[in-house]
Specification:
The protein is α/β, with parallel strands linked by helices. It is built from ten helices and eight strands. Helix content is about 55%, strand content about 20%. Among the domains are: about 60 residues, Ubiquitin-like (UB roll); about 80 residues, Translation initiation factor 3 (IF-3), C-terminal domain (Translation Initiation Factor IF3), CATH 3.30.110.10. The strands form two sheets. A four-stranded mixed sheet has the order 2-1-4-3. The protein has a four-stranded mixed sheet with strand order 5-6-8-7. Strand 1 and strand 2 form a beta hairpin.
């Protein structure tokens, strides 16, 4: 009897487990678990993983200004560039007149420069050349423009006179280079309770350098440090820019002088070569032949002198 009951229990449990695992509600879970075990991914997961910006550099799209028929204004102030690099004004005219003027000047473009003015300003020029000059000017400005750096001067509120002079000298050097300077007073441990002395020290440094700098706002607490920013005065920045322009001007002068010297050297060489050619052409063919004849006569005389002559030899060779 016990064995019969045990057999029925096992059969019932096996039937229940077969229905449970074979149920349609559990089949997707089995498929998902199988996919995870085998490393396969569903199509939706692949689509999600492929989203995002494609690899490679970011493509920049050029923003062209309105030109020719794209200009929506009827009245325009028209300019045109001159050989000196500046713009000459052609006056105020309609869009049709501006387009006709551009065709007369060699099929050029009418480019909208400033649409906020009244009337809007346009330039008659070749767009490719205009874009090249604009990019070249931007590169030169970027090359000449020096990004201001932030230098830092650190000190303690208990700084000695000599060390303070060293920090002040360093800050003045940075300011004369056109940089901003961050002045920091450091505190350790319980020294933070003497922050009043730090404020006084920063004010003293700014007062000693008042001929070169201006303080940006008031000193601020940053944790256990107290700091402020000082920037060079406009007069200092102007002097730096003037010195830089003078240096560039001197370099251009030297370059121009060397170019002129090279041209003069080349012209002098060409003049010498031309003079030599002229002297060679002055010798005519007759003069050269006469010289040859004279040389032949001299050779005959010398041969007669060497061989000598008497009556017997003359009779033999007569």
């Amino acid at each position: 009897m016990r064995s019969f009951l045990l057999f029925c229990t096992i059969a019932h449990v096996s039937a229940f487990s077969g229905n449970f695992w074979g149920s349609p509600n559990m089949q997707p879970e089995l498929r998902n678990s199988n996919n995870q075990r085998t490393g396969e991914e569903s199509p939706s997961a692949l689509m999600i993983s492929k989203r995002g910006r494609p690899k490679g550099p970011v493509r920049t799209i050029e923003q062209k200004p309105p030109m020719n028929r794209e200009i929506k204004y009827d009245t325009l102030r028209v300019t045109t560039p001159n050989p000196k690099g500046k713009d000459d004004s052609l006056g105020i005219m309609s869009k049709a007149e501006a387009l006709q003027k551009a065709r007369e000047m060699g099929n050029l473009d009418v480019i909208l420069i400033n649409e906020n003015s009244d009337p809007p300003v346009c330039k008659i020029a070749d767009y490719s050349k205009y874009r090249y000059q604009k990019e070249k000017k931007a590169k030169e400005l970027k090359k000449n423009a020096k990004a201001t750096e932030v230098k830092e001067v650190k000190m303690s509120y208990k700084i000695d006179v000599h060390d303070y002079g060293v920090r002040k000298k360093a800050a003045a050097k940075f300011l004369n280079q056109g940089n901003r300077v961050k002045c920091t007073v450091m505190f350790k441990g319980r020294e933070i309770q003497h922050d009043k002395l730090g404020y006084e020290l920063l004010d003293r440094l700014a007062a000693d350098l008042e001929d070169l700098c201006l303080m940006e706002g008031k000193p601020k607490r940053e944790g256990r440090n107290l700091s402020c920013f000082i920037t060079p005065k406009p007069s200092v920045v102007k002097a730096i820019n003037d010195k830089k322009r003078a240096t560039e001007k001197e370099a251009r002068k030297k370059k121009e002088a060397s170019r002129v010297a090279m041209e003069e050297k080349k012209t002098s060489k060409t003049v010498v070569v031309e003079e030599l050619k002229e002297t060679e052409t002055e010798l005519s063919l007759d003069e050269l032949l006469e010289g040859v004849k004279d040389d032949d006569d001299d050779d005959v005389d010398t041969i007669d002198e060497l061989l000598g002559g008497d009556g017997v030899t003359d009779d033999l060779f007569a």
